[in-house]
Q: What sequence folds into this?
């Protein structure tokens, strides 16, 4: 039953979807306006040109500690479509001849980690230093430090940095340690690594994200009476006094009534555009920087790298950092992923494909030369905002913007969630916004 109050949610990523469900639960008549053809936001899928295989915008992996995401997936009925590992396992490849792996037992992580680190295939001194570093994650870091600064101060340069910290930093922060906020990264690690083995373990999607979010959202929203409009791009928000009075979609204007609420779940750069005339509101978050992700999806024809598990860190790898596999996919299908590397800016698909093939050969040897391999490139320029030390003061608390209109609330991974740009940060931003609503 709705209370007669309306809520417009702008943007159907995981933050917008969480907000839409929560507002509906609180009695609002909800209308969600999404510019794409489907919900899911940055976790969307589209067909590969030749094969029509549905490929993600880029790999998205969850961790067991993603409780906000698990709640959303449960609501969509897709929580079971993941390989839910019981503890963390990750492979490392240094080149054609050398590999290592980190495998936690099912003991709580603080107990399992020392043993796993001592078995990691790096020098003995480096393992001891890595162990000391892991123990000092607990103490956090000065808010002004980059993670590179933390590595230096904690004696983690060399092998611990290359093998353990840098891959983790790229995976979680989507930037190199030189650009990452140490405090934010360590907070994310504490959440994953200070609890049970399951909370640090990967949740690996067994299907494209379009089938986990976008497709099921259609039915779930319909069942709950949430009105979804796709292909609805918001171009402007009109204000009068301290209220939003209209949402503009090109030629169409939706009037916002006195009791109506507008929730923006758009990314920072999109919200900045629709608030273009209100510089005072966008001044801080408008300066957040973006970091890209490039994924090269391979289907090998003649040769294939060995299956070393779903997540393989390519140690020292540039520009690709990980080789990733979807559970259940044939061995010939995998992806190389590059996070936060700007060397692809301005490069063509053909150039990126060549670079990806060369790197595969560097890490797996000439046995992985396959001229017939099909490679599909997905490039997302605004994959995440850069969570550097300066970003903390630029991210507004989910809810009303400082001095913003009283009926405009904001959420999204880029708001102040205490987490870097992740699916989980996005859902938690919406939960925080919902918690701030008056009953
Ligand atoms: C390639 C890639 C890989 C990633 N890998 C991981 C990972 O492994 N693990 C992880 O936790 N996170 C990962 N992330 C980050 C994660 O995708 C984001 O943090 C999260 O999806 C953000 O959700 P959101 O709802 O805040 O924003 P978004 O997902 O960006 O949703 C915003 C929505 O607003 C819509 N929109 C924008 N402008 C308008 C407009 N004018 N009018 C109407 N609608 C509009 C957009 O179309 C979009 O649907 C990855 C991101 C990318 C791009």
A:
């Amino acid at each position: 039953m709705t209370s007669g109050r309306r809520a417009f949610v702008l943007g159907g990523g995981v933050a917008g979807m969480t907000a839409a469900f929560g507002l509906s639960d609180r009695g609002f008549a909800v209308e969600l306006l999404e510019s794409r053809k489907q919900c899911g936001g940055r976790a969307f899928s589209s067909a590969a040109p030749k094969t029509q295989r549905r490929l993600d915008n880029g790999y998205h992996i969850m961790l067991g500690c993603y409780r906000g995401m698990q709640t959303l997936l449960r609501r969509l009925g897709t929580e079971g479509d993941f390989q839910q590992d019981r503890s963390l396992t990750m492979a490392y490849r240094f080149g054609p001849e050398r590999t290592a792996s980190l495998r936690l037992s099912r003991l709580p992580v603080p107990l399992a980690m020392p043993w796993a680190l001592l078995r990691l295939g790096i020098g003995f001194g480096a393992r001891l230093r890595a162990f000391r570093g892991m123990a000092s994650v607990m103490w956090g870091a000065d808010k002004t430090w980059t993670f590179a600064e933390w590595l230096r101060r904690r004696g983690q340069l060399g092998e611990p940095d290359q093998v353990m910290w840098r891959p983790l930093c790229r995976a979680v922060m989507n930037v190199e340690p030189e650009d990452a906020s140490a405090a934010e990264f360590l907070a994310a690690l504490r959440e994953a690594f200070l609890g049970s083995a399951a909370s640090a373990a990967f949740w690996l999607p067994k299907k494209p994200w379009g089938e986990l979010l976008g497709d099921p959202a259609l039915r779930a929203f319909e069942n709950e009476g949430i009105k979804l409009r796709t292909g609805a791009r918001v171009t402007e928000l009109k204000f009068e006094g301290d209220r939003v009075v209209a949402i503009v979609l090109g030629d169409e204007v939706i009037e916002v009534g006195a009791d109506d609420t507008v929730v923006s779940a758009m990314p920072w750069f999109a919200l900045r555009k629709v608030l273009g005339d209100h510089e005072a509101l966008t001044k801080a978050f408008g300066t957040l920087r973006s970091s890209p992700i490039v994924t090269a999806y391979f289907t090998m024809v003649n040769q294939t790298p060995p299956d070393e598990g779903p997540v393989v860190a390519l140690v020292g790898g540039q520009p690709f950092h990980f080789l990733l596999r979807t559970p259940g996919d044939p061995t010939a299908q995998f992806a190389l992923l590059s996070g936060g590397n700007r060397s692809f800016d301005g490069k063509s698909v053909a150039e990126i494909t060549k670079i990806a093939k060369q790197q595969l050969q560097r890490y797996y040897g000439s046995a992985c030369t396959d001229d017939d391999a099909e490679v599909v490139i997905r490039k997302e320029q605004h994959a995440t905002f850069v969570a550097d030390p300066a970003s903390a003061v630029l991210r507004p608390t989910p809810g009303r913007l400082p001095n913003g209109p009283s009926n405009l609330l904001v959420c999204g991974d880029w708001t102040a969630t205490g987490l870097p740009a992740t699916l989980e940060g996005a859902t938690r931003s919406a939960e925080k916004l919902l918690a701030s609503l008056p009953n």
